[in-house]
Design goal:
It is a single chain. The chain contains 3 helices and 27 strands. With 396 residues, the chain is mainly beta. It is elongated, with a radius of gyration of 23 Å. The relative contact order is 0.14.
């Protein structure tokens, strides 16, 4: 059974608590859902406590500087159903200063279950878009359908992010902050690291029946967006992946890699991560690592790994004419270990990049290299694409 929860402000962070019936006016005109998900256990969330807030777009911050988080004082219910939840946010409750490039908003959510003394934290980026019905809505940034604010999209096409949260034993600081009626909570930047992240890969065709390899290249332009995984630690030493942040390349740079015939090409960009300390009433709750901004530095890794083999009649196209094939849409490129940050926190984090006109993968097609295969579907629909030499279909 769904339960409705009233949002109240506590120590600068919204605490969603209390089991109340929603007024008819609220039920008739609910705020749009900004985040939906469930916990990874069968824990019933009906009596759990929630905190939710947004943070301003990441800018240059000094170590020790406190982040000015904005509580989600929506006045709309957060609903639970067993281990699942939906968080609704009134767009009017998010000031313009908290809306980043392309309508991106950084949302953070914390759940605490007093019965099991377990909690979870996540961060997710959502896009604020305008719909053709004249209303605003929250959209999953990486689905490739929603424009930035200023354009409109059909309301039926808007889907909010969904997530599965891992419950873990609550630290003393987390438990104490939820037991206190009005804790004083702070989020402070404690450090930063510039790390490499894989945002694409190319697999040019082998010579086959010819004498030369195919060629591949990528573009990463100003305005392109990439999802970078976030990390969580209760002590600053042992880390685990939790949530993600979408970063828009707004640093005024674009880069087009030169066409190369290397068999396995890995395209990387440098991303700056900030480390944050979360505390309430002087007690440590946890640390997080979140992507802040691209630095404008890129590189290519010429991997010695053999290319994958995605050859399949259901995933390939054969006998392409000579020309340039460029991918600008379809499934996002994703890599579970894309952010190379294990030297700092012991684990790597994921990357995901949607294809757009400014974020592309290209292959030079010719009579000797005339076939393309996707990793999960036909080339235009898949997230990764591989080139093959001519007559490759004879090997099926």
């Amino acid at each position: 059974m769904n339960r409705n929860r009233l949002v109240s402000l506590t120590g600068g962070i919204a605490v969603i608590a209390g089991l109340l019936s929603a007024p008819a006016a609220i039920a008739a005109e609910p705020a749009p859902v900004a985040l939906a998900g469930q916990v990874d256990q069968s824990t019933n969330l009906d009596n759990a406590l929630f905190r939710a807030w947004v943070t301003p777009p990441a800018e240059t911050l000094d170590d020790g500087e406190e982040i000015k988080s904005r509580p989600l004082d929506t006045g709309k219910p957060l609903k639970t159903h067993g281990s699942a939840f939906t968080l609704s946010v009134d767009p009017a409750a998010v000031p313009e200063a908290y809306i980043g490039p392309n309508g991106l908003v950084s949302l953070e959510l914390e759940i605490y279950d007093p019965a099991s003394q377990q909690y979870s934290w996540t961060t997710q980026s959502v896009r604020l878009v305008d719909t053709t019905t004249g209303s605003a809505a929250w959209a999953e940034p990486q689905n490739g359908q929603q424009p930035a604010r200023g354009g409109t999209v059909k309301a039926a096409a808007v889907q909010p992010p969904t997530t599965t949260l891992k419950l873990r034993k609550a630290s003393e600081g987390v438990a104490a902050s939820f037991k206190t009626r009005a804790p004083v909570c702070t989020t402070t930047k404690t450090g930063q690291s510039d790390v490499w992240a894989t945002i694409g890969s190319g697999y040019p065709a082998a010579p086959g029946y010819g004498t030369t390899r195919g060629k591949a290249w990528m573009t990463h332009s100003n305005g392109a967006e990439i999802t970078y995984g976030a990390g969580l630690s209760t002590n600053g030493t042992n880390w685990e992946a939790s949530g993600s942040v979408d970063v828009s390349n707004t640093k005024g740079f674009s880069f087009e890699w030169a066409a190369s015939d290397w068999m396995t090409q890995v395209y990387r960009t440098q991303i700056r991560y900030y480390k944050y300390k979360y505390a309430c009433d002087g007690l440590l709750r946890y640390y997080t690592m979140k992507a802040a901004a691209e630095t404008g530095v890129v590189k290519t890794v010429k991997s010695k790994d053999l290319p994958p083999t995605w050859l399949s009649s259901s995933k390939c196209g054969f006998n392409y004419p000579a020309g340039t094939w460029t991918k600008t849409t379809g499934s996002a490129y994703s890599l579970a270990s894309g952010v190379k940050i294990s030297d700092i926190i012991g684990i790597d984090l994921r990357t995901s990049r949607k294809y757009t006109s400014g974020s592309t993968l290209s292959y030079k097609m010719s009579a000797s290299h005339d076939s393309l295969c996707g990793n999960t579907d036909k080339p235009a629909l898949a997230g990764k694409v591989q080139q093959f030499y001519n007559r490759i279909e004879e090997e099926l």
